[in-house]
Design goal:
With 430 residues, the protein is an alpha/beta fold. The chain has helices at residues 27-31, 74-92, 106-118, 130-133, 144-161, 172-176, 246-258, 274-283, 300-307, 323-330, 343-346, 358-369, 372-386, 391-413, 425-428, and strands spanning 3-13, 19-21, 40-48, 57-58, 64-69, 98-103, 123-126, 164-167, 204-206, 231-236, 263-268, 290-294, 311-314, 335-338, 352-353. The strands form two sheets. Strands 1, 2, 3, 4, 5, 6, 7, 8 and 9 form a nine-stranded mixed beta sheet that branches. The longest helix is centred in the C-terminal third of the chain and has 23 residues, at 391-413. It is globular.
Amino acid sequence: MNVVVTVEHRFDRLPDGSVWTSGMNSCRLWARYRTVFETVKVVARVRDVLSVPPGWSRANGPGITFLAVPYYLGPWQYLAKAWQVHRALGQAMTDRDAIILRVGSHIAGCLEPALFRAGHPYGLEVVSDPFDVFAPGAVRHRLRPFFRWWFTRQLRRQCRRAAGVAYVTRQALQARYPCATYSVGMSDVEISPEALVRTATAFATHYSSVELATEASVTRCRSVSRQGERFRLITIASLAQMYKAPDILIRAVGACVTAGLDLSLTIVGDGQHRPELERLAFSLGLRERIRFLGQLPAGVAVRAQLDAADLFVLPSRSEGLPRAMIEAMARALPCLGSTVGGIPELLPPEDLVPASNVAALAAKIREVLASPNRLSAMSSRNLAAAREYRDEVLDARRRAFFEHIRDVTAEWLTSPSRAAVFPSPAASGI
């Protein structure tokens, strides 16, 4: 059986047909679905370009194809292309496909009602929380309050209707977006069939999309002792929106410097808000202390920056389960984060601060940097916690989820009363 996976991420396609990505949505991620399904068809926005930046990763490959949705940015561009988007979704798949929707996602929101009306089973991979995505300060749009209400309501409905739900968190997303069956939390590598809770119609588990290869982790924790040297902070965040609160972090660094702490900040990531953040750093007198490195190739380049830092800080306004923080933890780097999304599942309460609170974040940075013993303890604890996100720990949960979606789809296909959801290739002109 083939599987169709919808994703909100945007991709670039070269004239030779190869599809490329700047993030984690590479061929390696989609290959995981092929442990159960014959082929993977990824439905996403794809833009045709003549070249891609150095360091980007190939997204399509053997058994992995992309079904392009017309490229748009933001709600207004979507409205201008809504008919083309819906038509592309109808032509992208057939009734014989298993379907997994990665949510929250506007593409998934367009497709799910038709699936539900026809009774076509589908699975959800819940990777973000619209309640946090559209929190104050995270997105600057006059319809932000409406978007927050609408998309939160939509995701709750999707989870109730789904045949199976896989969350990236152990508890946080499950509490806000419950599904029709039990939620399962496990961290052991050896998982018996009885450990996964499923019913005839629904199934739930949790696993992360984070890929921790062997070389991504160090083997020993850090011993931190700066003794008069400048402390080096780092954050990794897209600057396309203010989800990761880089503005809060820059202001907290300014407060620390004003209080007499000698530190610098490296920001890895790029986006439309970078010029604004650079102006903020300049206005606070931090131009020489804050480096904007832009987008770096995943892997060695990013790990080199993490290894050169003393403290990773992610004061997010919105979060699912932060990949960047897990990667920092795998380098035995002490971390601070906010109390949103899945961050409290990664860090203990003493390493957390309220979101959007500059004073609390600055105080926490000063507190931890004043104690080398505490930094060493944070390093050891983070390295141990990151080991739970190795592929061999998570693969059993992923496979069980994929198998359930395959099986309920196969059962639905044998139902004599099932209704067609999508046109046949002949009818749609494909």
